[in-house]
Amino acid sequence: MSLHDPLQPPAWAVSILRAACHPDLRDEIEGDFREQYQADAQRYGPAAARQRCVPQLLSVVRPALMFNLSYPYPMRSVLYFGETPYGVLFVSAAAVLLAMAAVPAAAFGESVMLGLPMSAMAWVMPALLTVLGILYMRMRTRLYAAAISRIHIGVTAAAVLLLAGVAGVAAAEPPASFREQHEQVGSVMQLLVLVLVLAQLLYAANVLLGLRRGGKAPAPGNGPAGAQG
Amino acid sequence: MQMGAFEELVLYIVAILDGKAYGIGIIGELERRTGRPAAIGAVQTVLKRMEGKGWVTSAFGEATQARGGKAKRYYTITAQGRHALALNRELRERLWHAIPTTGWNYEPA
What interface predicted TM-score (ipTM) does this complex get? Predict the structure, then answer.
């Protein structure tokens, strides 16, 4: 017999919600979440309430509630890539981390990339993406142009994912074609690194131009009408 | 200060609920009056933002069993908030009256 009260949200959901919210907002939002869950459970049944609580849970994963940012702050969830494109960087970081975690460290052997052992690069790449994502969150209103930001984010995420993909495949179980075309694979990886470096220069230019001429990139939350404010 | 469409709706609901507006109460009233569902995170973010703009103030209220003993935070519209709503309404009225009547009643065959 289950001891779980069907009118109470699952413990895992409450834990995630509490972890996602800033301590100053936690109790208020948890109270709302519990009240909504109870209303849904009474109206639609416990199974439907469990399903409906997931989007509610995701809706609180946004910088304004996670960090209790003062106005102005982004209105959209960090997962609404249209308004907060830097969310792509966080998702890419998580994807690289998961992919690299799946490859045993020993599989990388003595391989080196940019002077660092490949096993270390598995941590450097997601860290780079995360740092960039945080930089975007902090500097979004000071950047020169949103278009440059989007290009930088797209190119950076794509280059890192491709690098991780090539490195992962090569390290895990290199197909015969990989071993035969060792040099070509190396060239592709060098090219991807070059693209990655150029993209970071683009970001630096965006920041410098923004500081020099004033930011033109629209502050997230002042975009198209909808769930914005 | 700019007012977004969702912000405007929530501010109307806070004004309508007249001192009894809190997270879930606002979501319920919004859905009842507009048919538009809203997520807790979206409403909470808008409320915090409007508080930062000085359009609403908040104070903690009672805790209930349904909320797991967590207190409600009640929001009240300020004079600044009422002024912002009035300005927004005026702007919409002006835009409505600026629509040319020619072709307005046109119906394709």
Answer: 0.87
